[in-house]
């Protein structure tokens, strides 16, 4: 089957105005589809990065109100944690850093040395099993009775669930746009059949089969979809790059994870080809089915 219609085929279908309309429609469809796909892929990458960063990470809080005892328990807890083979990293959070984190809520009062701010210890574990967490909890409780253990993965789980929901929604939008594209192709193919009904009857009298006639439409529709899709994909890709630059400028660790890898960009670049194949199949099914009913 020829990919590019001949000059005779183009004259036969009188496609100039319809071609321009179909191309722009497909450009818009692919623009929206690529944006939705980029959102889904970027959110998925951010969710994976967030899960990898938070897996096996604990925060130990020493909530002893007396400063001297709080300091002693913190030192003992740090020493006990460093002796555990399951612990890969231990870091006591500096008081100045805690003050900076609390400033939006406490204002300048957070710097008051008499304010009993709990001591925090960041802990990274090599294993996230329940047995490991139990051993860490026992070791800390033995030297710091007022200590509390918080798994960062647990209190960030709502964020991870939300990102998973956004990823699923984005991929559902891609599927919806694919279905809408197939519907547009079917409508365009049927409209073309009605427009060229007399010409098609002449072709049948000259010996052309339904398959040969359908190829005239499916080639044209496939090319319109591909060229329009390439245009929409390029515009959407530029928009994605611009948004990515804006996200990096914000300096947020969570938002900076919304990035696309090489494989993601390849998937987005293949969307015009995939939609052209989809349009070809939809046009073929629509035209052959309609020809069997009306002729």
From TrEMBL:
<dbReference type="InterPro" id="IPR004513">
    <property type="entry name" value="FtsX"/>
</dbReference>
<keyword id="KW-1133">Transmembrane helix</keyword>
<keyword id="KW-0132">Cell division</keyword>
<feature type="transmembrane region" description="Helical">
    <location>
        <begin position="221"/>
        <end position="245"/>
    </location>
</feature>
<keyword id="KW-0472">Membrane</keyword>
<dbReference type="InterPro" id="IPR003838">
    <property type="entry name" value="ABC3_permease_C"/>
</dbReference>
<feature type="transmembrane region" description="Helical">
    <location>
        <begin position="265"/>
        <end position="287"/>
    </location>
</feature>
<feature type="transmembrane region" description="Helical">
    <location>
        <begin position="21"/>
        <end position="41"/>
    </location>
</feature>
<keyword id="KW-0131">Cell cycle</keyword>
<feature type="transmembrane region" description="Helical">
    <location>
        <begin position="162"/>
        <end position="189"/>
    </location>
</feature>
<keyword id="KW-1003">Cell membrane</keyword>
<keyword id="KW-0812">Transmembrane</keyword>
<protein>
    <submittedName>
        <fullName>Cell division protein FtsX</fullName>
    </submittedName>
</protein>
<dbReference type="GO" id="GO:0051301">
    <property type="term" value="P:cell division"/>
</dbReference>
<feature type="domain" description="ABC3 transporter permease C-terminal">
    <location>
        <begin position="173"/>
        <end position="284"/>
    </location>
</feature>
<dbReference type="Pfam" id="PF02687">
    <property type="entry name" value="FtsX"/>
</dbReference>
């Amino acid at each position: 089957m020829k990919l590019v219609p001949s000059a005779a085929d183009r004259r036969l279908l009188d496609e100039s105005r319809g071609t321009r309309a179909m191309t722009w429609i497909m450009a818009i469809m692919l623009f929206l589809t690529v944006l939705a796909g980029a959102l889904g892929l970027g959110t998925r990458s951010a969710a994976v990065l967030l899960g990898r960063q938070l897996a096996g990470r604990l925060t130990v809080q020493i909530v002893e109100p007396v400063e001297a005892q709080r300091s002693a328990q913190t030192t003992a807890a740090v020493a006990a944690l460093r002796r555990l083979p399951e612990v890969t990293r231990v870091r006591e959070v500096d008081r100045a850093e805690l003050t900076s984190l609390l400033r939006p809520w406490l204002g300048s009062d957070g710097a008051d040395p008499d304010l009993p701010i709990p001591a925090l210890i960041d802990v990274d574990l090599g294993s996230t099993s329940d047995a490991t967490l139990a051993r860490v909890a026992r070791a800390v409780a033995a030297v710091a009775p007022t200590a509390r253990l918080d798994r960062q993965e647990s209190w960030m789980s709502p964020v991870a669930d939300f990102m998973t929901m956004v990823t699923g929604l984005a991929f559902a939008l891609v599927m919806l746009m694919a279905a809408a594209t197939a519907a547009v192709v079917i409508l365009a193919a049927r409209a073309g059949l009605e427009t060229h009904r007399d010409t098609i009857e002449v072709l049948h009298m000259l010996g052309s089969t339904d398959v040969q006639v359908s190829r005239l439409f499916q080639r044209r529709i496939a090319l319109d979809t591909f060229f329009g899709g390439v245009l929409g994909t390029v515009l959407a890709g530029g928009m994605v790059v611009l948004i990515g630059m804006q996200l990096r400028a914000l300096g947020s660790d969570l938002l900076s994870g919304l990035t696309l890898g090489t494989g993601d960009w390849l998937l987005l670049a293949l969307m015009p080809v995939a939609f052209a194949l989809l349009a070809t199949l939809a046009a073929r099914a629509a035209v052959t089915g309609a020809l069997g009913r009306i002729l």
